[in-house]
Design a protein that fits this description.
By secondary structure, the chain is an alpha+beta fold. Helices cover 27% and strands 39% of the residues. It has helices spanning 91-107, 114-135; strands at 4-9, 14-27, 30-34, 41-45, 48-54, 59-64, 67-71, 76-80, 83-85. Strands 1, 2, 3, 4, 5, 6, 7, 8 and 9 form a nine-stranded mixed beta sheet that branches. The chain binds adenosine-5'-triphosphate (ATP). It comes from Candidatus Falkowbacteria bacterium CG10_big_fil_rev_8_21_14_0_10_44_15.
Length: 143
């Protein structure tokens, strides 16, 4: 069975490091799925959900705020600004942070950095989406 050596790294920690069957990541051009022996590639990633199919066919869901993916012949690495496994995400915290940011957007105060607030909203939405997908996760049956 062919696998991919896959790592997700943030400035704070290694979020994931394991052999996987495939992974799907959000890029500016849409989602891309990487299978073993994919051609080398570098792409920038947008806020969203990374889905990883593990060797036991289980799906791992990770929230990503943005970063880069590097596909090399021997491994695939994501350098993330922030990334959390769905199981580690506090959904209420993400939802509250999203609502605070949405409120700031509507207040239209001059001192507010709107692009930063927009980025915050996208980051928190990715966390909420990851938790929800994780909740609905299923084991893919191969037979
Ligand atoms: P908040 O607005 O909720 O206070 P924050 O702006 O401090 O969040 P970030 O800067 O995005 O959060 O992240 C800071 C650290 O907290 C990172 O390590 C991130 O992984 C973690 N983190 C942030 N939000 C959550 C969450 N909802 N669940 C789990 N970890 C989180």
């Amino acid at each position: 069975m062919s696998t991919i050596h896959f790592e997700i790294v943030t400035p704070e920690k290694v979020v994931l490091k394991e052999e996987v069957l495939q992974l799907t990541v959000p890029t500016k051009m849409g989602e891309i799925t990487i299978l073993p022996h994919h051609i080398p590639l570098v792409a920038s990633l947008i806020p969203g959900v990374i889905e990883v199919k593990k060797t036991n066919n289980e799906l791992e869901t990770v929230a990503l705020s943005g970063g880069f993916i590097e596909v090399l012949p021997t491994k695939v690495v994501i350098l993330a600004d922030t990334a959390e496994r769905a199981a580690d995400i506090d959904e209420a915290r993400a939802e509250e942070a999203r609502q605070r940011a949405e409120k700031l957007m509507t207040e239209k105060r001059e001192e507010v950095d709107f692009s930063a607030v927009q980025a915050k909203i996208a980051k928190e939405l990715a966390r909420v989406k990851a938790v929800r997908r994780h909740r609905n996760r299923h084991i893919i049956k191969t037979d």
